[in-house]
Design brief:
heterodimer; A: 215 residues; mainly alpha; MetI-like fold; 10 helices; 82% helix; 0% strand; B: 373 residues; alpha/beta; six-stranded mixed beta sheet; four-stranded antiparallel beta sheet; 14 helices; 17 strands; 34% helix; disordered N terminus; binds adenosine-5'-triphosphate; binds magnesium ion
Chain lengths: 215, 373
């Protein structure tokens, strides 16, 4: 397998555009996933019987093959980016939901109780105490979901919104390895960059952990 | 209810709590926790102390009966409003790990809408009140020792100056030395603040030390006796209470009762500046009390040792056996100790300024001891 560097240098603009296209599917999918997972996780955390149902459901959704998922979605949302994003969002839920529930579980009961006992309401306690303290576990989920989504976007090539995935289709069709290798490397780089960015965000958002070591 | 002062007496009227799983945590409790005093709830694990406490700030709702605070049913106010007026301290402090110490303390003032600056200023003031250095304010709770965290917990509960303080084993997780220190601080603070405090502990010594009133619970959520510590130690209601108070009940009682009102008799003494002749003249028995220039006891002089000394030589410089002056606020126990350890067999009494007033013998102390039970 040889790489044609010539092809790469003439296609830098395309590679850049495909990367951006890739991210414009991946980022909304993760954000949307988070937006859905947060309230569901709160419900699952508060109402014991619902926990198993919601977590089980998200597990089952995860096992639906991507092709089948897109086939199901097509009649509803058509050949649009929305279909790609929706499908990927469903996959992120399995990680985001589980981690958010676990994050909320990890908040010490004493701390939650202290907040209520100080006269903070349930919503205030959730927003100001429970979610911030669950952040490290939630963020661990966001990192996994982001990396997973970035690598999964390519499957949306079926419906024309695969981003970097188009390089694979292209390469396989022409039996030309260079774009495939470029696609793999780019996916990897995007995933690493996203992960690094999220680590930084988490570091900035959790000063109490940073300074936590006993002086 | 006098002259518009905040009334914060807590009253339980036939209160019971049965949890949905069938456990009766508190059974038909009727009791009053006096205003401006510390009521300590003690009893073995699972006897309903925490539940009793949590019903006051409505973290738990009773299944029967009513609880009133200053004459008002606690259910009259929205729970959050009620809680902002009741300080709450728990074991290991339950501090918010993600907020700085200052922000932790400022929690209730902020909820009350004091504004950030005023709330922070008040928090800084409280750091000092509970004996923490000002630079602790910028730190996070896990950058503090357990004892320091406990102090922050107390500061946080006091921040909005609530008339009532609920404390659930607040010093249970710190070592005995730090615990004694924190108890001292609480006693000092309480002398100043006069809060209505309900304090839960497993430690009967802590209860005796802190309580103006002690309520003893037994498993099944029954309160067996509620009385001031001295009365409890002197007259336990039944064998359960007596057993709970332990085999050293008599000693604890002696350490609790003071010398106030215990009579003393005059004692012959000489100044430490006196001559040997003056000492001989003053001596009534073998031991003579020597008084230092400030009026306090300097020690006991063995008059036998004066033999053969020239009458003009000074008492100063002769060997003295130690004598400790006991104030009215000292305990009966310390006086009894003194009668045993001093060669003269009596305890030297002094006034508030430390000036010798007389001596008390063992017979008088024993008579006082017998009068207790
Ligand atoms: N939420 C709850 N649901 C069911 N039972 C409970 C609940 N909370 C407490 N109990 C039970 O009620 C009883 C009293 O509990 P409580 O916590 O008041 O005891 P305690 O005197 O504070 O004990 P400890 O000294 O161990 O703290 C116990 O048997 C306990 O198991
Ligand atoms: Mg308890």
């Amino acid at each position: 397998m040889t790489i044609e560097w010539q092809w790469l240098s003439t296609h830098t603009d395309d590679l850049w555009a495909l990367s951006l296209d890739h991210l414009s599917t991946a980022i909304p999918a993760v954000l949307l996933g988070l937006l859905i997972a947060l309230p569901l996780a709160v419900v699952a955390h508060r109402i014991r019987p619902l926990r198993g149902v919601l977590l089980g459901l998200s597990n089952i959704m995860f096992t639906v093959p991507s092709l089948a998922l897109f086939v199901i979605l097509l009649p509803i949302t058509g050949l649009t980016r929305t279909t790609a994003i929706t499908g990927l969002t469903i996959y992120t839920l399995v990680v985001l939901l589980r981690n958010t529930v676990e994050g909320l579980d990890s908040v010490p009961a004493k701390v939650r109780e202290a907040s209520l006992a100080m006269g903070r309401g349930r919503v205030g306690t959730l927003l100001k105490v429970e979610l911030p303290l669950a952040l490290p576990v939630i963020m661990a989920g966001v990192r996994v979901a982001s990396v997973m989504t970035i690598s999964l976007v390519s499957v949306a090539s079926y419906i024309g919104y695969g981003g970097i995935g188009q390089l694979f289709t292209d390469g396989f069709q022409r039996n030309f390895p260079t774009p495939v290798i470029a696609g793999v490397v780019l996916t990897l780089l995007l995933a690493l960059a996203a992960d690094a960015l999220l680590v930084l965000v988490q570091w900035l958002c959790t000063p109490w952990i940073r300074k936590g070591a006993r002086a | 209810m006098q002259n518009g002062k905040v009334v914060s007496m807590i009253r339980f009227d036939s209160v019971s709590k049965r949890f949905p799983n069938g456990t009766t945590a508190v059974d038909d409790l009727s009791v009053e926790f006096s205003e401006g005093g510390i009521t300590v709830l003690v009893g073995s694990s699972g006897c309903g102390k925490t539940t009793t406490l949590r019903m006051i700030n409505r973290l738990v709702d009773p299944t029967a009966g009513t609880i009133t605070l200053g004459g008002r049913d606690v259910r009259d106010l929205p729970a959050a409003r009620l809680r902002r007026g009741i300080g709450y301290v728990i074991q290991q402090a339950g501090l918010f790990p993600h907020r700085t110490v200052l922000d932790n303390i400022a929690t209730v003032p902020t909820l009350l809408g004091w504004g950030r600056r005023k709330a922070r200023a008040r928090a800084a003031e409280l750091l000092e009140v509970v004996g923490l250095p000002a630079d602790a304010g910028k730190r996070y709770p896990n950058q503090l020792s357990g004892g320091q965290q406990q102090r922050v917990g107390v500061a946080r509960a006091l921040a909005a100056d609530p008339p009532v303080l609920l404390m659930d084993e607040p010093f249970g997780a710190v070592d005995p030395v730090v615990r004694a220190l924190l108890q001292d601080e609480l006693i000092r603070l309480q002398a100043e603040l006069r809060k209505t405090i309900v304090f839960v502990t497993h430690d009967i010594d802590e209860a005796v030390r802190l309580g103006d009133q002690i309520a003893i619970f037994r498993t099944g959520g029954h309160m067996v006796q509620c009385a001031p510590p001295a009365e409890l130690l002197a007259r336990p209601a039944d064998d359960f209470v007596a057993g709970f108070l332990g085999s050293e009940r008599g000693l604890k009682l002696l350490s609790l009762v003071t010398l106030a009102g215990v009579p003393y008799e005059p004692v012959g003494s000489v100044r430490s500046t006196a001559t040997v002749k003056e000492a001989r003249d003053a001596a009534a028995g073998r031991w003579l009390l020597v008084v230092s220039p400030d009026g306090g006891p300097a020690g006991w002089l063995d008059t036998g040792a004066l033999e053969g000394l020239p009458g003009t030589s000074a008492v100063a410089g002769l060997a003295l056996a130690p004598a400790r002056g006991l104030r009215d606020s000292d305990s009966l126990l310390s006086a009894l100790n003194e009668t045993v350890s001093s060669p003269a067999g009596v305890a030297v009494r002094v006034d508030a300024a430390g000036v010798v007033t007389g001596v008390t013998g063992q017979d008088v102390l024993h008579a006082r001891q017998r009068s207790l039970t």
